[in-house]
């Protein structure tokens, strides 16, 4: 019923006993009476095996269902308008699944093609995508970008096929952090500027800042972005020796010591550790190692506001927050091997967005010959 093109809401007309029965089974509430409207969820229908295993129904959309009697249908025919969100792929998918000729709404587990699964997996990830760019990439994959890329391979030479498959896998590895948060723990001694940098990176005064040592006694967690990359930053308690005070029963020392333990545990499980070292205290920087970025920090009280007077490589989140943020972003990308040289993605490009798809494409790219049969199997495997 909705004209072709983009729209915030689309309206589907469901008529015929079989189609209405599918709507009745998929709608989370009783269908409305004539002239009434019902709000609810549109769900997939489970196979017998899934019902027996108590697998929850997959939710496709929040919808409004209106019972109508269109003039071009007999009065005894049931007719319903289903108002859904206007994503073209979502509309097409719901229409297909309400069509009795399309088979079960949710296929039972077993053999067969996984081609639709790739699109469905992409669509299922869109609501929880931690970045706008990630959501856009996933929507393109849900709309068939990978199908088109694999079809285009058939016109290419064997060497071009292998190169294209390798490029698809490389693109997937380069963009996979768009689809999940990267955890970055900020660690270091007390008064190294961890909380100040944390506030700059998350864009809010989330952490208390003070010159008093031990102000941060627990780990704080906030979501933010470094460029297009979704990141969860952790601000941890400052490192210092509290063993004597804790042994003497000092309550504050015991609380801070527990905060240090929590911070150490979280940083051990983080994707990346940003270790801050105060330029005032740095006699020798820690040895670089995988998963750890060392950042030299400088306080204004030591060298004034002129950044040219700071020690080489030092940053100050207080005096020059933009420089500090750029430095962290550059170190983040370098440590994780993220490309900053050009556009990350162009609309319409195929992207294997999960590890399984990347590995399948990598394996295919390593074959001595990528035949049409291999491409057929690849389409089924994804």
UniProtKB/TrEMBL annotation:
One of its GO terms (molecular function) is GTP binding. This is tRNA modification GTPase MnmE. Its EC number is 3.6.-.-. PANTHER family: TRNA MODIFICATION GTPASE GTPBP3, TRNA MODIFICATION GTPASE GTPBP3, MITOCHONDRIAL. It is an enzyme of class 3 (hydrolase). GO terms for cellular component: cytoplasm. Keywords: Hydrolase. SUPFAM superfamilies: Folate-binding domain, P-loop containing nucleoside triphosphate hydrolases. Pfam families: MMR_HSR1, TrmE_N. InterPro entries: GTP-bd (IPR006073), GTP-bd_TrmE_N (IPR018948), P-loop_NTPase (IPR027417), TrmE/GcvT-like (IPR027266). The keyword Ribosomal protein does not apply. Residues 183-279 form the G domain. Residues 2-99 form the GTP-binding protein TrmE N-terminal domain. GO terms for biological process: tRNA methylation; tRNA wobble uridine modification. Gene3D superfamilies: P-loop containing nucleotide triphosphate hydrolases, Probable tRNA modification gtpase trme, domain 1. The keyword 4Fe-4S does not apply.
């Amino acid at each position: 019923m909705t004209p072709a093109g983009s729209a915030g809401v689309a309206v589907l007309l469901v008529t015929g006993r079989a189609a209405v029965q599918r709507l009745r089974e998929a709608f989370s509430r009783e269908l409305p009476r004539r002239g009434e409207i019902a709000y609810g969820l549109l769900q997939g229908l489970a196979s017998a095996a899934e019902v027996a295993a108590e697998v929850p129904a997959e939710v496709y959309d929040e919808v409004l269902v209106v019972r109508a009697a269109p003039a071009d249908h007999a009065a005894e025919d049931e007719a319903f308008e289903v108002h859904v969100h206007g994503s073209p792929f979502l509309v097409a998918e719901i229409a297909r699944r309400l069509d009795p000729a399309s088979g079960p709404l949710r296929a039972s587990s077993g053999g067969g093609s996984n081609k639709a699964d790739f699109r469905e997996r992409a669509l299922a990830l869109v609501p929880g995508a931690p970045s706008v760019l990630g959501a856009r990439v996933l929507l393109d994959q849900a709309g068939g970008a990978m199908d088109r890329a694999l079809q285009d391979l058939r016109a290419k030479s064997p060497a071009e096929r292998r190169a294209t498959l390798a490029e698809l896998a490389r693109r997937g590895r380069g963009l996979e952090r768009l689809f999940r948060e990267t955890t970055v723990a900020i660690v270091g001694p007390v008064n190294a500027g961890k909380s100040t940098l944390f506030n700059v990176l998350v864009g809010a005064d989330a952490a208390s800042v003070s010159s008093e040592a031990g102000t941060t006694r627990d780990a704080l967690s906030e979501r933010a972005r470094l460029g297009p990359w979704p990141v969860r930053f952790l601000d941890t308690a400052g490192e210092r020796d509290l063993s004597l005070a804790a042994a003497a029963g000092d309550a504050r020392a015991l609380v801070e010591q527990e905060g240090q333990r929590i911070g150490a545990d979280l940083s051990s499980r983080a994707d990346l550790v940003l270790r801050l070292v105060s330029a005032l205290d740095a006699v020798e920087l820690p040895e670089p190692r995988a998963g750890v970025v060392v950042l030299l920090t400088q306080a204004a009280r030591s060298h004034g506001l002129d950044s040219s007077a700071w020690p080489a490589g030092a940053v100050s989140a207080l005096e020059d927050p933009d420089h500090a943020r750029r430095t962290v972003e550059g170190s983040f990308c370098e440590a994780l091997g993220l490309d900053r040289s050009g556009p990350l993605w162009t609309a319409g490009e195929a992207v294997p967005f999960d590890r399984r798809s990347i590995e399948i494409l990598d394996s295919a790219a390593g074959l001595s010959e990528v035949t049409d049969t291999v491409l057929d199997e690849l389409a089924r495997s994804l």
